[in-house]
Design brief:
elongated, 4 helices, de novo design (two linked rop proteins), 0% strand
Length: 124
């Protein structure tokens, strides 16, 4: 197994871009919502990255798959938070569409990893 193999994965790099955008966006959240909502949104986007990284270091495909499942859940949570921001006019429809596409790409990449694992493993 390559040491820190996740550093070379496109999905990891894309998730870092998403987190960077989320961090920028949280500065636009009204102060009375910033701590609760902004913090949760950053944590969900960070969770994508951390679960990809942690899963990549596991010794079995079954464990890797479990961490990818968690990362996909965090993609959904992040997108839901962004959708709420859009509905409340904190981010534009255009920015939401861009981030929606980023989330969709990350989710598809993780799904592709999971499919590859399933097709190449007796553990799942």
């Amino acid at each position: 197994m390559d040491e820190f193999r996740f550093l070379n994965w496109k999905v990891y790099k894309d998730a870092k871009v998403l987190l960077g955008e989320v961090i920028k966006i949280t500065s636009r959240i009204p102060l009375h919502l910033k701590y609760e909502f902004g913090n949760q949104l950053v944590r969900s986007a960070l969770s994508i990255i951390l679960n990809i990284a942690e899963g990549s270091g596991k010794n079995s495909d079954k464990e890797l798959n479990r961490f990818f499942d968690i990362a996909i859940g965090s993609v959904n949570e992040t997108l839901a938070g962004l959708d709420v921001l859009k509905d409340n006019k904190i981010i534009s429809e255009e920015l939401f569409k861009k981030l929606f596409e980023n989330c969709k790409s990350i989710s598809k990449q993780l799904g592709g990893f999971k499919k590859h694992i399933k097709n190449n493993s007796n553990l799942l």
